[in-house]
Amino acid sequence: MSRSRILTFVCFVFFVVPFLAHAADVEFVRVWPVWRTAESFDRISEYFDGQENTGRHTVLRSQPDTRAGYYFLVRTKTTLNAADAKFVLQIIKPDAPQAKTYTFPVGLTGRETVFSLGLTGIDWPDRKTHPVAWRLALVNGKGEELASRESFLWAKSAP
Q1: Which residues of the chain have pLDDT under 50?
Q2: Rounded to an integer, what distance in angstroms lies between the CA atom of residue 83 and that of residue 1?
Q3: pLDDT, tens only, 66-88
Q4: Cα-Cα-Cα-Cα dihedral of 91, 94, 97, 103, to 10°?
């Protein structure tokens, strides 16, 4: 084998393959934005012990003491374990043309997981308000984007 072919092969193995494997390590299976009432989170067990029971979902809220709000139900599938990951949600509301950014720290555990990311309290006005456009990304502790999804209008507004 010629020297140039060996060099090409080595470059491919060390530079391209890790990138491809890294890009496939995290996937958004579904992102579903929806308004949820505070009552939709009630479970019978809460009446006995006073603790919120979220089942198998991880619920993260912009205002932790308020349950009602606009939520992004996100199902992720990953092979990574990353304790320092975070969701970065950029959203444009009808009353403000500039995107506002919210971050939600999460731990990835190398499996399929469901997250409910809620804009609650003062961060979302009411059930009748819907976002104009949004973009959701999952980044690691170094700030590298692992996965992302965006609304149709967000994609159309990009230059």
Answers
A1: 7, 9-23
A2: 44
A3: 999 999 999 999 998 888 999 99
A4: -20
Q: For residue 107, what are its two tokens?
A: 């731990």
74 contacts 136 by C-beta, under 8 angstroms: yes
Q: Residues 36, 73, 102, 105: is their CA dihedral positive or negative?
A: positive
pLDDT at 52: 80
CB 137 within 8 A of CB 87: yes
For the chain, state the CA radius of gyration. 19
Place of tokens 């579904």: 30
pLDDT digits (tens, 9 = 90+) for 93-109: 998 889 999 999 998 88
Closest to 57 measured CA to CA, from 65, 137, 40: 40
- Which residues, including other chains, have CB under 8 Å from residue 139's CB and lie 6 or more apart? 85, 86, 88, 145, 146
- 96: which strand partners? 93
Supply 72's token pair: 């992004």
Architecture, CATH, for domain 26-157: Sandwich (2.60)
